[in-house]
Design a protein that fits this description.
single chain; 68% helix; 441 residues; alpha/beta; 4-stranded mixed beta sheet
C-alpha cells in the first residue's frame, strides 16, 4: 500500500509541477510580487519622482506669517505623509506674483502661496498651481493657512507670547484603562489587525480556494475520462483518497513557499537598488506601530503566535482538501462540483471578513464561538489571538477541534468516497451517500 500511495502522490505532483503553465504562472507571479514591492522604484524609473520635493514658494505680504506657516506645513507634512524629511521644499519668495507664475510655467510642480492681510478675516490666502492639487497637499496647505490666521488674530488681540504658545502647545493626554488586562499596546494592535493582517492572510485564503478547485478538477477529470475505473482496479479507494489529499497539500505548501520566496526576492531587490524600507510604505501610523513593536515588547508574542497559526493553517488545509475530495467524489462533472464548492467559498469569505472586523466585535460571544469553528478558525483565531480576545489555551482548543474534524472527515468521508468515485449517475446519489455513512468499513 505504501509503495502505491507514494507512486500516486508522485504522479499527482508531477502532473501539477512539471508543466510549462506552472513554471510560466510562477514566473509571472514572481515578477508581479517583486514589482508590487518595488512599485515606487519602477514608477521613478519611468519618470516618477517620489523622492523629489515639491517646490513651495510663499509670498508673505503680511511680513509676520511666513515663519509660522513654514513650521506648520513641515509638522503636518511629516505627520500625514510619514516622511521625516517632508515632501516640500519651502522658500520665501521675494519677487512679484507674476514672476512666481512664470516660475510655475518652468516647473509644473511648483506651488505658490500668497499671504495677504485682510481687514475682515485677518488673513487672505491664494494658492496658485499648474494643475489640481491632490488631497494630501490640499489638507496640509489649508490647515497651515487656517492655523496662521488664528495665530495672527490672537496676536492682534494683545495676547502675550506666553499665552499664544500655551494655546498652540499640544495637550498632554493620559490613557487610563479600568480593565486591568488592557494595555496601551493593545490599541495599536487593532490597527495592525484591521490594516496589515488582511494582507498577510490573503495568500492563505487564495491557496485554500486553489486547493479545493484543484482536487475537484482532478477527481472529476479521472471520472470523466473513465480513468478512475483503471486506477481503482489497481489500488484501494482509501489509498487513492489519501494520495489526492497528500499530493494536493504538498503542492499548496510548495506554492506557499514559493510565494514567501517571491516576497523575499522582492525585498532583496528593493534593498539592492537602495529603496526605502517597505514598512514606511504602509502609512505613517501603521509604520510607527510596527516599528514600536520591539520597543513595547509586543513582538515577543509573535514567537508563539506564528508557529501556532502556521500549524492551524496546515491542519485547515487538510480539512479543506478532505472535504473537497469527498464532495468531488459525489459529483459526475466539473460543473456540479463548482456548485457544491460555493458553500466552501462562502464559509472562507465569512472568516476573512470577520478577521478584518475582529476589533469591532471585541467581547462579542458569537465571534469567539466562530473562532473555534473549523474551516474558519485558521483565519479568525490568529487575529483574535493578536487582539488578546483569544488566549493560547483557546487557540489550542481551536487546533484540537480541527484535528477532530479531520478525523471525522477521514472516518466517515472515506465511506462516501468509496461509493462516490465509481458512481456516474446523479439519480439517488444522496440516498446512496447516506446509506454509505451507515455502513461499517
Amino acid at each position: 500500500m505504501t509503495s502505491k500511495l507514494n507512486y500516486l502522490i508522485s504522479v499527482s505532483l508531477k502532473r501539477k509541477i512539471k508543466t510549462k503553465w506552472f513554471v510560466i504562472a510562477n514566473i509571472i507571479l514572481g515578477i508581479i510580487i517583486a514589482g508590487i514591492i518595488n512599485i515606487d522604484s519602477i514608477i521613478m524609473l519611468f519618470g516618477g519622482d517620489f523622492n523629489n520635493k515639491t517646490p513651495l514658494y510663499v509670498i508673505d505680504e503680511t511680513n509676520v506669517a511666513y515663519e509660522l506657516f513654514e513650521s506648520q506645513v513641515k509638522e503636518m507634512d511629516i505627520n500625514l505623509a510619514g516622511k521625516e524629511e517632508g515632501s516640500y521644499e519651502i522658500k520665501k519668495y521675494e519677487k512679484s506674483i507674476e514672476e512666481a507664475k512664470q516660475q510655475i510655467e518652468k516647473d509644473k510642480k511648483t506651488i505658490v502661496i500668497l499671504l495677504q492681510e485682510d481687514t475682515e478675516n485677518t488673513l487672505k490666502a491664494t494658492i496658485i498651481s499648474e494643475q489640481f492639487l491632490d488631497t494630501l497637499d490640499t489638507q496640509v496647505l489649508t490647515s497651515a493657512i487656517n492655523t496662521v490666521k488664528v495665530a495672527i488674530a490672537l496676536s492682534n488681540s494683545n495676547i502675550s507670547d506666553e499665552e499664544i504658545a500655551s494655546i498652540y502647545a499640544k495637550a498632554t493626554i493620559e490613557r487610563i484603562y479600568l480593565d486591568e488586562t488592557k494595555k496601551s499596546e493593545d490599541e495599536n494592535m487593532e490597527i495592525i489587525v484591521t490594516t496589515v493582517f488582511p494582507i498577510v492572510i490573503l495568500p492563505f485564503f487564495m491557496l485554500t480556494m486553489f486547493l479545493v478547485q484543484m482536487i475537484g478538477a482532478e477527481v472529476n477529470d479521472e471520472k470523466t475520462t473513465r480513468g478512475m475505473e483503471i486506477i481503482i482496479s489497481n489500488v484501494s479507494p482509501k489509498t487513492h483518497f489519501f494520495a489526492k489529499v497528500i499530493a494536493a497539500n504538498l503542492f499548496v505548501l510548495f506554492q506557499g513557499l514559493l510565494l514567501v520566496l517571491f516576497v523575499l526576492l522582492g525585498m532583496f531587490i528593493r534593498q539592492l537598488i537602495g529603496g526605502n524600507s517597505i514598512v514606511n510604505g504602509l502609512g505613517s501610523e501603521v509604520s510607527k506601530v510596527i516599528t514600536g513593536l520591539g520597543e513595547t515588547g509586543l513582538a515577543s508574542k509573535f514567537i508563539y503566535i506564528i508557529p501556532l497559526s502556521l500549524l492551524l493553517m496546515v491542519l485547515t488545509f487538510i480539512a479543506y482538501s478532505l472535504l473537497a475530495g469527498i464532495l468531488a467524489s459525489m459529483t459526475t462533472n466539473t460543473e456540479d462540483f463548482q456548485q457544491l464548492q460555493t458553500p466552501i467559498i462562502i464559509i472562507s469569505l465569512i472568516g476573512y471578513y470577520l478577521a478584518m472586523m475582529a476589533g469591532v466585535f471585541e467581547g462579542a460571544t458569537f465571534i469567539k464561538i466562530l473562532g473555534f469553528m473549523p474551516l474558519i478558525s485558521a483565519i479568525l483565531a490568529p487575529s483574535l489571538l493578536v487582539l488578546g480576545q483569544f488566549g493560547v489555551i483557546e487557540f489550542i482548543i481551536a487546533i484540537l477541534l480541527v484535528i477532530v474534524t479531520n478525523w471525522l472527515l477521514v472516518k466517515y468521508g472515506l465511506r462516501i468516497y468509496k461509493v462516490g468515485i465509481l458512481n456516474y449517475s446523479s439519480s439517488g446519489l444522496w440516498k446512496k451517500m447516506f446509506k454509505a455513512l451507515k455502513t461499517r468499513e
